[in-house]
């Protein structure tokens, strides 16, 4: 009986992990392909970043909704439907004849990613007890790390040897195989459209529409910031209005009759602090993901394949470090591990801010490796802490909020990094060596801001760690009376 249970658990990890691998593979390959797609489609470097941003924005908008639907319908059904949508989006993007169709394909692909990400952690929480949860989440993180590693490596090789379109076409045969395994291994209940409409008709669609509008306006501010100082006021207006509508959507949802986010989750201070820290960490991590291809390929002339090998060092480091972090998180203080991870991440951002103008691997590689170590040490214990703070029946919405924080952090990070970089380079449509010192100084400034943000995240988790120590001391003192 025990062997059968472990076999089922392993099957679930395989399906969840393989889909996580594919989404990570596609995401990291897309980051690397931006300079080539910009040339192929004859668009500016700043416009090409929207190929990444539009996918992340779409995922951020839909994560909470799909997490809630997974809770009231079936996490397995929503998860596998997401796998199908991801495949369709990959095909559209790969065959896209122009930039607009690329964006459309990326939106469909992102809808699938949102359905997958919103329910992965909830499925783990349903099938794994708390004492094994961090280890299970760490195993899925390993699949993500392998995907992130394979993205720059495989993607760099493909872009150097053939068309960038193959980074999307490769998802199709792999995805069909994983989808087949998913339907074989996951217990999928049969749901009629009538039942789906019944359980979703009373949902707070007003709140979802407000949230969608707010997020879109908020991130459109980035396109104005990238245009330089002439459109700064318009960018600030979109930033403030979009942010205000987004915040109000949470207030409106909290007061609605059938909210997307359960009030007990939204009002759980420990849970919200954990996902806020996660959002800041993902923001910081995405800065290097979007800027490194410009630094290595566009400015220093490195081939996509070689730059992919350099960038993949972060993911290789995460892959090696994550299993140890997951095991340690189940055995020692999780709050302390998040503090250590963030301290290392902050140091790595300082390292990026001292990158040489010319390629010097002895100065380039250490910050990339430190970034991977810091992320690995932070993520597994923080995920376990986050999911352990809510009731199992809320695991779907809690997992989707966790994924939302990840995606929102990545989206804001990419928008922030590209906007801040091109704001400092007015009139520059494409990064080349001819931009000179202006690019390097702008590059440094972005990473100094990333250092400040990582310091804020460090303070947040340090306060959490000190609070947990204080509570432990009180419990011990009360028990000895």
What does this structure look like?
Helices cover 83% and strands 0% of the residues. It contains 18 helices and no strands. The chain has helices at residues 2-40, 45-48, 50-72, 75-95, 99-127, 130-161, 166-169, 171-185, 193-200, 205-226, 232-255, 263-266, 269-299, 304-329, 334-352, 361-387, 395-423, 437-480. α1 crosses α13 and α3 packs antiparallel against α4.
What is the CA-based Rg, rounded? 22 Å
The helix fraction, in percent, is: over 70%
Quaternary structure type: single chain
**What is the distance, rounded to the nearest whole angstrom, between the alpha carbons of the first and last residues?**
43 Å
For the sheet with most strands, the description reads: none
Helix vs. strand class:
mainly alpha
Q: Which stretches are low in confidence, meaning pLDDT under 50 for 5 or more residues running?
A: none
Mean pLDDT: 81
Helix-strand string: HHHHHHHHHHHHHHHHHH
Number of strand segments: 0
Strand content: under 5%
Inertia-based shape: globular
The helix tally amounts to 18
Highlighted features:
globular; mainly alpha; 481 residues
Short description:
The protein has 481 residues and is mainly α. 83% of the residues lie in helices and 0% in strands.
Question: What order do the helices and strands come in, and which of them pair?
Answer:
Elements lengths: L1 H39 L4 H4 L1 H23 L2 H21 L3 H29 L2 H32 L4 H4 L1 H15 L7 H8 L4 H22 L5 H24 L7 H4 L2 H31 L4 H26 L4 H19 L8 H27 L7 H29 L13 H44 L1
């Amino acid at each position: 009986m025990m062997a059968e249970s472990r076999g089922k658990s392993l099957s679930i990890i395989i399906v969840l992990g393989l889909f996580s691998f594919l989404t990570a593979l596609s995401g990291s390959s897309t980051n690397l392909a931006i300079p080539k797609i910009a040339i192929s489609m004859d668009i500016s470097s700043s416009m090409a970043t929207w190929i990444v941003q539009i996918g992340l924005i779409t995922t951020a908008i839909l994560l909470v909704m799909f997490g809630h639907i997974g809770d009231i319908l079936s996490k397995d059904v929503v998860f596998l439907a997401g796998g199908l949508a991801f495949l369709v989006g990959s095909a559209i993007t790969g065959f896209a004849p122009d930039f607009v169709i690329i964006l459309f394909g990326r939106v469909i692909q992102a809808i699938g990613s949102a359905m997958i990400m919103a329910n992965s952690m909830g499925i783990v929480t349903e099938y794994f007890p708390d004492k094994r949860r961090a280890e299970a989440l760490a195993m899925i993180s390993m699949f993500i790390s392998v995907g992130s590693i394979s993205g720059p490596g495989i993607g760099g090789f493909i872009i150097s040897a053939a068309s960038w379109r193959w980074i999307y076409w490769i998802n199709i045969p792999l995805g069909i195989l994983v989808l087949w395994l998913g339907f074989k291994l996951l217990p999928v209940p049969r749901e009629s459209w009538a039942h789906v409409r019944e359980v979703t008709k009373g949902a707070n669609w007003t709140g979802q529409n407000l949230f969608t509008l707010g997020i879109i306006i908020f991130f459109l501010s980035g396109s104005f910031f990238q245009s330089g100082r002439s459109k700064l006021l318009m960018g600030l207006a979109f930033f403030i209005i979009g942010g205000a509508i987004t915040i109000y959507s949470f207030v409106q949802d909290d007061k609605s009759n059938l909210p997307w986010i359960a009030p007990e989750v939204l009002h759980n201070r420990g849970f919200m602090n954990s996902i806020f820290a996660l959002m800041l960490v993902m923001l910081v991590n995405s800065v290097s993901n979007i800027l490194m291809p410009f630094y290595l390929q566009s400015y220093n002339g490195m081939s996509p394949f070689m730059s992919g090998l350099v960038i993949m060092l972060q993911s290789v480091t995460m892959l090696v470090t994550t299993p140890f972090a997951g095991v340690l998180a189940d055995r020692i203080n999780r709050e302390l591990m998040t503090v250590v991870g963030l301290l290392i991440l902050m140091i790595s951002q300082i390292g990026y801010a001292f990158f040489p103008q010319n390629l010097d691997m002895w100065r380039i590689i250490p910050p990339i490796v430190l970034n991977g170590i810091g992320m690995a040490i932070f993520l597994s214990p923080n995920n376990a802490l986050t999911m352990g703070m809510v009731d199992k029946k809320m695991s779907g919405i809690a997992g989707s909020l966790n994924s939302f924080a990840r995606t929102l952090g990545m989206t804001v990070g990419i928008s922030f990094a590209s906007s801040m970089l091109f704001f400092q380079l007015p009139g520059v449509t494409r990064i080349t060596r001819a931009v000179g010192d202006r690019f390097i100084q702008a590059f440094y400034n972005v990473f100094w801001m990333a250092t400040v943000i990582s310091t804020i995240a460090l303070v947040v988790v340090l306060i959490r760690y000190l609070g947990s120590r204080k509570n432990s001391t009180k419990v011990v003192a009360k028990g000895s009376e």
